[in-house]
Amino acid sequence: MLYITQLLLFVFWIGLVQGQQHYISQTNVMDLLQNLPETKTLISLLNHDAQTYLTDQQNITFFAPNNNAFKENSVEFNSFYHTLPVYHLDWNMTLFESTSYNKSLLKLSFNNQQKTVESGMMLYANVLKTIPIGHQNSVVHIIDKILATPSDIITTLTGLGFTKAKDMLGSTSLPLNQQLTLFVPNNQAFGTVDPATLGDDLLSQAHVSDKLVTSNLWTNKMMLTSLNGFKMTLIEKSKNDWQGKP
Predict the structure, then answer these.
(1) Which of 6, 114, 143, 211 pairs with 90 at a CA distance of 20 to 30 A?
(2) Which PANTHER family is this protein grouped with (predicted)?
């Protein structure tokens, strides 16, 4: 009985080592994806530019949706939105990283022993597996959903169900070619108030900061200035619970 147990453990150890060697032998992200059964659908959707980038580019992080992600999600897939132009393996804190697609943002979180990545429309994907690639100094995270590419503000608010804020912003124009931060009330925040009675510029001016300040940069009692000169102070009530005060 002891001999059989030892034999089974030896076979398991051999299989584990071979599996590790399989990952280690891959020289770049593209090579790895082509050899993973769970990324067959993804491989079929990568165009020539994406394949070249994932083959040649050093120091990148790629979020690879598995086969099931494409069956369960109708979101349009954009390979470059799934790519960080940095090697990112540490998940000890919540942060934003610029992607190589239109300088968009992804939010990386680690809660209850589960790594997640949040994209446009507040869609979350769970990280199922992480595979570093030493030759390329890169890493692949296998995820269970396609990351939604952020769209314009009105489309995003519609997707989030923030219909009252959408109606207010839809009748105004925000500055173009300028980085902004919007503090958007959800429908419950409006209560029974008709957005049309609040004036066209209330949301687009008083609720919009004149610079880009992502939440990982917030500090307690940080002061921001809105487009109409309104001063607002960010107060940290508790972890991940913030309040804006005039």
Answers:
(1) 211
(2) FI19380P1, PERIOSTIN-RELATED
